[in-house]
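[Q] Does anyone have a clean structure-token version of this?
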Amino acid sequence: MAEATVYEPVRSSAESSRSSLSEHTLASFDDFSNEVDDGEYLTARSFDDEAGSAPADGFDDGGKGKLGITSAVFLILNKMIGTGIFSTPSGVLLNCGSAGASVLMWLAGGVLSMTGMSVFLEFGLAIPKSGGEKNYLERVYRRPRLLITCVFFSQMILLGFSASNCLAFGRYVLFAAGADEPSETIARAVAVSCISVVVLVQSLRPNLGTRLFNVLGMFKVVVLAFIVCTGMAAVLGLVPHDGDVNSWSDVFADSGFASDGFAASGTSVGYATALMRVVYSYRGWENANYVVSELRDPRRTLAVAAPLAIVGVTVLYVLANVAYLAVIPRQEIARSGVIVAGLFFRRVFGASAGARVLPFLVALSNLGNVLVVSYAHARVNHEFASEGLLPRQWANWKLVASDVNVPVMGLGLHWLITVIVLTAPPSGEAYEFIIDLNTYPAAWMNMLVASGLVYLQHRKAEHWRSPFRSLLPVTVTYIASNVFLMVTPLVMNGGTSGNAAVTAAAGMSCLGMGVVYWAIWSRLLPWIGSYDIVAARTDTGGVRYVKVKRGQEGSIEA
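[A] Here you go.
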């Protein structure tokens, strides 16, 4: 069995309560007490080379249902490729002011994603267990004890929903069915049906769910490859299309958007806005880090799948934009309020194809995103239940007898939060406001993860080791990109943006609720109940938080 992860007790006063724990846990505490004295905490040395086959969260199914490299690639692809590449290019071109600058912006987005991948790859290979940022933040920010765990817990529970892609799925299904102005109520009903069916499939037929996101991931790649090939064929004159296009006659020439009333075009504010939209279109590259325990040979799978997926998406995004510009005049792309891929299909195949095919393609893209997000977030919820932040019984519940372990309650919690967000808020700006809440907290968390890696790499007392090392300039670039995402919305156009400030404040308040939860769960209730919360190691090498009565024999689970 892989060597277990080493953690320190949550409170030093637990020393007197060690006798209440099991013999196995007693040994664990004695072991890690010596290692803490030596300054050694969780590092790559805590896992032997076979750690990949022994999940640290007790979710071991003997390798059945594990994800290989192909599935891991599509797990990432499905989250990265959403509606962004079908709609964002118009806003990026408008803000950049020239075709060449907009394409370079999409390339820059891929490079920034690679910097983030470098940080997460070093952490993921050193700590090969599910949970993503949770494990990485816990490794660095150990004091106040459990604070960062509760803050991340709050973010994932309150903001880890799939409402935006479910609603987009509902809207595009109705568009594909012929509804020019689909009812918001009906769209939400379709969205609720979408997340419900996805959760049922993941619970009852987990292997079918895996096959579905593999198929949909391949479908997305085929669609983008088709757009790329069609655009190249149009440039060569092999495919007839509507209109004389000269977008590439002078690629870096100012397209004149500023003189047409869009003052930010080609300015520093315009470039900042464009980069922000591009970065958001690349979100999801870290998805495999959330489910490392579900990967077959996780170190090898993660090391191969993550770079392959990000490089592949970057190439597809850049070439897709080249294809758009090869077929559609840049003025039409920038000024149109419709989805740019719709214009592309309309010019190549006629109005009927553009109107009917595109909504169907985008709806399937959204469905793939819902599948992989629910898969990943359910595993993170399972981690919380295994450790005791959620009811521990949830970690062992199964809906059906199966050789494949399924985090049913984790899926159920993800379903519940998503349905609440889909049904509770009123329509309009209030709804869009809630959907966008996670953007700001996510940037903070990513910045903390990257800054923590710099600390671990340069503080010898931490004894940090990993099979992969992220270079300092790469890590600093990723930190800067997240600071950019945090600051830019607040200072846009030279002043504070009211909407952005309110969204940022609301998002950060969700993290603040994690601080409140920490104060109550780990400080107030233990004080009232006269017990300590102690971190103990499990037989599978994971960690669990248990309540230990002060001065009494026996322990109760947290």
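[Q] Thanks! Anything notable?
[A] The first strand starts at residue 531 and ends at 537.
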